[in-house]
Amino acid sequence: MRKIKIAPFMPTEVEVNEISANRAEIIAYPFESGYAVTLAHPLRRLILGSSIGYAPISVKIEGAAHEFDNIRGMHEDVAVFIINLKNIRFKIKDESDRVELKYSFRGHKEVVAADLNNDKIEIVNGDLPLATLNEDAELDFTVVISKGIGYVPSEDLRDDVATDAIALDAFFTPVKKANYKIDPVLVEDNPNFEKITFDIETDGLIAPVKAFTNALEVMSKQLSVFNGVLDVDISSTPVKKSSDDNELKAFMVTVDTLGLSARSFNSLDRAGIKYLAELVLMSENEIKNIKNLGKKSLDEINECLLEHGFGSDFDLPDHTRTNLKKKIEQLKA
User: Fold this and answer.
1) Which CATH number fits domain 52-171: 2.70.40.10, 3.30.70.270, 2.170.120.12, 2.60.120.10?
2) Number of alpha carbons in the 13 Å side-chain half-sphere of residue 136
3) pLDDT score, position 86
4) CA-to-CA distance for 112 and 116, rounded, in angstroms?
């Protein structure tokens, strides 16, 4: 006979199996039917897409004008050199957002990733080959390493790199694999329960379990947008928004919903700008001075402001400006 329930069953068991230094299984159970995939799928996406890593975003090679060029004395052409460089896993030691590194190699040498180690960065996969040089070779190059998440194509990075450097596709994510499977599990003779097994592998920049816990934190922060719903007493008279709330609603759009390119969004995110209101409150000169914001991104943001009715001729009343500042302070507190 089926029992009547008043709340879903709460899973109670979790196991962590460290298969190797860079691979682990995380198992949780028992979930009611349907709950396992509801949790597992978004977690997998967050593990892959929100884990912070480091990647080269540009390289300038003395004597090479473009990626299809070649360097005298180097066996590999520039295209192969760049592929090898992008495969190297860097880690900035002080965890700063960006670092510029200069290297110089002379004469016969098999250059490997470990040769790039210095006091600013650490190389995880030191055995990876980079270049093969003969006796008369001179290899001088400058590479910029940046912190980020996910993948950013080189086209979106051109405004962020020097004009004489080659922009690179940036693979930031340190997670090589994040899979899950769902298996049936028995609970008190009831076979309609499920077990999730996550299989996570990283490149060594981050531990698999750390990548998983980071994803949990990101999910929690994303869901916190609904915290205000918990404060509503549905048994009482519906709460009416004040005129001030209605007035500010158009301004309190989050930046991640504006449809900006990854380049523009990342520049605003690094500057701590979360809401459209913050851009409206800034002067055009203040927006121009946002760190790492190129001209293309500036034009895109100005166009976005214009589309939302906040062009350069928009006059913001003093009381609205004051209320906006208070609202932003409350949301960011």
Assistant:
1) 2.170.120.12
2) 3
3) 94
4) 8
Distance of alpha carbon 192 from alpha carbon 179, whole angstroms = 22
pTM reported for the whole predicted model: 0.64
pLDDT digits (tens, 9 = 90+) for 159-173: 888 888 999 999 999
DSSP H or E segment with residue 303: helix 295-307
Find, among 134, 183, 156, the residue nearest to 267 by Cα: 156
What is the helix (H) or strand (E) element at residue 170, kind and residue range?
Answer: strand 170-171
Q: 193 has which bridge partners?
A: 32, 185
Q: What is the pLDDT of residues 103-127, one digit of tens each?
A: 999 999 999 999 999 999 999 999 9
| Strand pairing class (190-202; 109-112) | unpaired
CATH of domain 238-332: 1.10.150.20
Query: Side chain identity at 287, as an amino acid letter?
Result: I
Q: Which pLDDT score, from 0 to 100, does residue 296 have? A: 84
The per-residue DSSP string of 34-94 comes to: THHHHHHHHHHHHHHHS-EEEEEEEEEETT-SSTT---TTBSS-HHHHHHHHHHS-EEETT
